[in-house]
């Protein structure tokens, strides 16, 4: 995009290049962000600069659940109010947050920080499955709940983990598939309806 | 979004909050960016941190054209190969880049770094119109080309500037409105066609 006849000042070019490394940010967005910060929010820019430095410097992975934490073991893993017999496997801390917001789970978590994606070179080794196995086979965990996304890659990851963990004698479950709460059947996609039919429950179970 | 039962570590929360100050970035994007940087691109994060600090520290506005530069006066304004009798007014440095890429202009620029937007509290004073007037009335500039966007706010800005500059005895022109190069009439919107009809040219002028 840059034209040799109109060299942008180097610090501006460097900032635009650095912003482009953010996921989902192309050259136009990066440019708009750079102009905005320089023209209207220099304090926001310095704030972001500091936040980046601190986050990279201070955060590490929890030794037990692999999520981000400032300490060796995160607060969730240390909480005495959690059921250590249940371990829920999610792809990202955002997924963990959503499950917490449902108030339906009181066990512990393991955060993969990704999903199996062979085409992108992300295999069991890159995701540190040995670490997960060590965690799940601590003798206290009895049930592992697979809560990876219901995308192709998330499902592949769940299948792979299910086999791996079942072979270790653990009870393995998966989040239920079905019609989303509050939705009208007319607007639910066919694949979801097919799943909901296959996994239908007897009414008296409720 | 944050749940008191699952406090995210402070440096992560601070990073997400700082990323949300970028234009067009909501809480989900900010979260995704933060996870990505921390998990996969710590060097990119530090790189961005440095770039932000340098850009805010080293860049200022060119005393002549108001664009970003490391020096008092930018390279474009100092270039002896530019025609100082023409001054093109644009909203942002990105617009200036696009005009340069057209290779159709060889005069100088003035970058407003914004547009008149009364509803957002951006008036002639906020945009520094006095500075622009001083620049345009240097005795060398003979024609001012208004190249603000063809949006409502860009048009308002152009109208306002046209009156202001004409009253100073300057020749003022506006980029031509019409059918975009390479387009089929069937797919051109009605407003553009109406403009193209109104501003039609005699064929022998070509």
TrEMBL record, chains A, B:
<dbReference type="InterPro" id="IPR034137">
    <property type="entry name" value="TOPRIM_RecR"/>
</dbReference>
<dbReference type="Pfam" id="PF02132">
    <property type="entry name" value="RecR_ZnF"/>
</dbReference>
<dbReference type="InterPro" id="IPR023627">
    <property type="entry name" value="Rcmb_RecR"/>
</dbReference>
<dbReference type="Pfam" id="PF13662">
    <property type="entry name" value="Toprim_4"/>
</dbReference>
<keyword id="KW-0862">Zinc</keyword>
<feature type="domain" description="Toprim">
    <location>
        <begin position="85"/>
        <end position="180"/>
    </location>
</feature>
<dbReference type="InterPro" id="IPR006171">
    <property type="entry name" value="TOPRIM_dom"/>
</dbReference>
<dbReference type="Pfam" id="PF21176">
    <property type="entry name" value="RecR_HhH"/>
</dbReference>
<keyword id="KW-0234">DNA repair</keyword>
<comment type="similarity">
    <text>Belongs to the RecR family.</text>
</comment>
<dbReference type="InterPro" id="IPR015967">
    <property type="entry name" value="Rcmb_RecR_Znf"/>
</dbReference>
<dbReference type="GO" id="GO:0006281">
    <property type="term" value="P:DNA repair"/>
</dbReference>
<keyword id="KW-0227">DNA damage</keyword>
<feature type="zinc finger region" description="C4-type">
    <location>
        <begin position="62"/>
        <end position="77"/>
    </location>
</feature>
<dbReference type="InterPro" id="IPR000093">
    <property type="entry name" value="DNA_Rcmb_RecR"/>
</dbReference>
<dbReference type="Pfam" id="PF21175">
    <property type="entry name" value="RecR_C"/>
</dbReference>
<keyword id="KW-0479">Metal-binding</keyword>
<keyword id="KW-0863">Zinc-finger</keyword>
<keyword id="KW-0233">DNA recombination</keyword>
<dbReference type="GO" id="GO:0006310">
    <property type="term" value="P:DNA recombination"/>
</dbReference>
<comment type="function">
    <text>May play a role in DNA repair. It seems to be involved in an RecBC-independent recombinational process of DNA repair. It may act with RecF and RecO.</text>
</comment>
<dbReference type="GO" id="GO:0003677">
    <property type="term" value="F:DNA binding"/>
</dbReference>
<dbReference type="GO" id="GO:0008270">
    <property type="term" value="F:zinc ion binding"/>
</dbReference>
<protein>
    <recommendedName>
        <fullName>Recombination protein RecR</fullName>
    </recommendedName>
</protein>
């Amino acid at each position: 995009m840059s034209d040799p006849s109109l060299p942008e000042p180097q610090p501006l070019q460097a900032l635009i290049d650095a912003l482009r490394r953010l996921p989902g940010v192309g050259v136009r967005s990066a440019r708009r962000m750079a102009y905005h910060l320089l023209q209207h929010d220099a304090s926001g820019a310095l704030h972001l600069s500091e936040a980046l430095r601190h986050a990279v410097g201070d955060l590490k992975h929890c030794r037990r659940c692999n999520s981000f934490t400032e300490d060796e073991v995160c607060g969730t893993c240390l909480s005495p109010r959690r059921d250590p017999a249940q371990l829920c496997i999610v792809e990202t801390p955002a997924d963990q947050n959503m499950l917490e917001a449902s108030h339906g789970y009181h066990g512990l978590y393991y955060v993969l920080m990704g999903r199996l994606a062979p085409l992108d070179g992300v295999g069991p080794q890159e995701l540190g499955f040995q670490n997960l196995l060590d965690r799940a086979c601590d003798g206290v965990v009895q049930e592992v709940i697979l809560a990876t996304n219901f995308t192709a890659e998330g499902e592949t990851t769940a299948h792979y983990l299910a086999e791996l963990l079942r072979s270790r004698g653990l009870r393995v479950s998966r989040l239920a598939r079905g019609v989303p709460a509050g939705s009208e059947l007319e607007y639910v996609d066919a694949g979801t309806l097919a799943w909901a039919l296959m996994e239908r429950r007897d009414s008296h179970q409720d």
